[in-house]
Design brief:
Elements (H helix, E strand, L loop, with lengths): L1 H9 L2 E2 L1 E4 L15 H13 L4 E5 L5 H13 L4 E7 L2 H10 L6 E8 L2 H8 L3 H16 L5 E6 L6 H14 L3 E6 L6 H14 L7 E6 L6 H10 L4 E4 L13 H10 L6 E2 L7 H12 L20 H9 L19 E3 L5 H10 L7 H17 L3 E2 H15 L4 E9 L7 E8 L2 E8 L3 H13 L4 E9 L8 E9 L2 E9 L2 H17 L10
Parallel strand pairs: 1-10, 2-3, 2-9, 3-4, 4-5, 5-6, 6-7, 7-8, 8-9
Antiparallel strand pairs: 11-12, 13-14, 14-15, 16-17, 17-18
Bound molecules: 3-methyl-2-oxobutanoic acid and zinc ion.
The site of zinc ion (ZN) has 6 residues, from loops.
Length: 521
């Protein structure tokens, strides 16, 4: 009996989790990330035990190339992947970017649907097969870990897809990824497509079948899981479902469905699910894409029981209304940890426990000084406060043109709010005063008197990091100038100060020389 159970456990396949938050996720308008931000997210993905991290599209811009290279140099436990069109120069860029990785992959793609081949590529099917094969051969010069995607596979003809897949596998592709690029497929149809391909492509056993589903009809997760039930063993997904247009399949939903319904799936992932909520918060903080409260797994209400009947049921027996435990995805990890009297050692130990490594003793000291300041204003310091504090410190270490020196705001009933601000611009202090519709508006106007950035404000949002009115507010500001879009973040118990910090962070990013372009431009 025991032996049989053991056999059953060991026979489960491994479902490879390929995270593309840093590539497809970044293609959401306004979600562009700096190199440092990509590295921070990549480290969290590694902590979560993601198998493959697609870090970017190196040929898209120098900024993207440098980001993939930086991620490849710091990540040791996950494979780092670079995307490339099926062109030698793109593949060479991706190959160079992943050179330093402990384990690297090149992902190359070419469209195979009639509409893409005819209208976009202006190529015949024969030419597409030839170019796909050439691209895979070329990529194999850099690495033996090569993935090929027939773009818009979801609208491609089955016979032609079989032909392309057979050819690229023979050329050396070790993973073949079937994208539903435009989110058009239905779960049953997509599952059948995967089964048919696996059965009909003669050398299908030589490659891992992967899927990459977009969410235009809200079916990305359902389609991916249907594919898994039909033999796909890699799923491409993103944290919070971020991605081009309506996004990609949400990693947290894929992972938790497979884990919760082990009675249905013959595979499982290696993900450390307790890291999911931290990853979700990190990505939403950096990109400024808020998570809706009723979002599965990572929404603030995902485990909140409001109705009396439900609360009563859960208190009597948890499983009456809960199919997963909040702590299994990292919700309750946010326990009260430190306070005003906590010492440097307790602070450092807690940072290590939640997976934050500070690079130097100076960085620990600077973060500890900030922690003490915060503890003076806020009684209980939670893990999420520590995360925000370290992000703030990381920003302070970046090359900043503008730094906040002081801010004084006045808002009184019946009076026009005004703000007096002192900034250091390249070290030289400048001050300005402005009035506005409210204290935040007045502060931003005062900053603009000094900076005169010409940027357009696309987004301003505030979230409380923990609960209670003494919580830190985390502000995201999205600015656009000359076709470039950047996000700035700031955290403070005073939301006007947090707002000014976020605005300056965004302005500093606009100032940075690093070339950043939307990956598809
Ligand atoms: O959606 C898509 O087809 C893609 C490919 C590059 C895999 O993102
Ligand atoms: Zn995509």
């Amino acid at each position: 009996m025991h032996g049989a159970k053991h056999m059953e456990l060991t026979m489960k396949d491994h479902l490879i989790i390929f995270d593309t938050t840093l590539r497809d996720g970044e293609q959401s308008p306004g979600a562009s990330m700096t190199k440092e931000e990509k590295v921070r997210i990549a480290k969290q993905l590694e902590r979560m035990k993601v198998d493959i991290i697609e870090a970017g599209f190196p040929a898209a811009s120098n900024g993207d190339f440098e980001s993939v290279k930086a991620v490849a140099s710091v990540i040791k436990d996950s494979t780092v992947c670079g995307l490339a069109r099926a062109l030698e120069r793109d593949i060479d860029r991706a190959g160079e970017a992943i050179q330093g990785a402990a384990s690297g992959r090149i992902h190359t793609f070419l469209a195979t649907s009639p509409i893409h081949m005819e209208k976009k590529l202006r190529m015949t099917p024969d030419q597409v097969v030839e170019q796909a094969v050439k691209a895979v051969h070329w990529a194999r010069k850099w690495t033996d870990n090569v993935e090929f995607s027939p773009e818009d596979a979801g609208r491609s003809e089955l016979d032609f897809l079989c032909r392309v897949l057979e050819a690229v596998i023979a050329a050396g592709a070790t993973t073949v990824n079937i994208p539903d690029t435009v989110g058009y497929n239905m779960p049953q149809q997509f599952g059948e497509l995967i089964r048919n391909l696996r059965e009909r492509v003669p050398n299908s056993d030589k490659a891992v079948f992967s899927v990459h589903c977009h969410n235009d009809l809200g079916l990305a997760v359902a389609n991916s899981l249907s594919a898994v039930l039909n033999g796909a063993r890699q799923v491409e997904c993103t944290i919070n479902g971020l991605g081009e247009r309506a996004g990609n399949a949400a990693l947290e939903e894929i992972v938790m469905t497979v884990r919760t319904r082990q009675d249905v799936f013959t595979c499982d992932t290696g993900i450390d699910t307790t890291q999911i909520v931290s990853a979700s918060r990190l990505v939403s903080g950096i990109t400024g894409f808020a998570v809706q409260p009723n979002k599965a797994i990572v929404g603030a209400n995902a485990f909140a029981h409001e109705s009396g009947i439900h609360q009563d049921g859960v208190l009597k027996h948890r499983q009456t209304y809960e199919i997963m435990r909040a702590e299994d995805v990292g919700w309750s990890a946010n326990k009260m940890v430190l306070g005003k009297h906590s010492g440097r050692n307790a602070f450092r130990t807690r940072l290590q426990e939640i997976g934050i490594e500070l690079e130097s003793e100076e960085a620990v000291n600077a973060a500890f000084a900030r922690f003490k300041e915060l503890a003076d204003k806020k009684h209980e310091i939670f893990d999420d406060d520590l995360q925000a504090l370290v992000s703030d410190e990381a920003q302070a270490q970046e090359q900043e043109v503008y730094k906040l020196v002081s801010l004084k705001v006045c808002s009184e009933t019946g009076e026009t709010p005004h703000a007096n601000i002192v900034l250091a611009e390249q070290g030289a202090e400048k001050q300005a005063r402005a009035t506005g519709g409210g204290p935040v508006d007045a502060s931003f106007k005062a900053i603009e008197i000094i900076v005169n950035s010409g940027a357009e404000l696309l987004l301003y949002s505030v979230n409380n990091i923990t609960s209670g009115t003494d919580a830190q507010g985390e502000v995201t500001v999205r600015l656009s100038r000359g076709g470039r879009i950047v996000n700035g973040q700031g955290a403070d118990t005073d939301i006007v100060v947090a707002s000014a910090k976020a605005y300056l962070h965004a302005l500093n990013k606009l100032h940075s020389k690093l070339e950043r372009a939307h990956p598809q431009v």
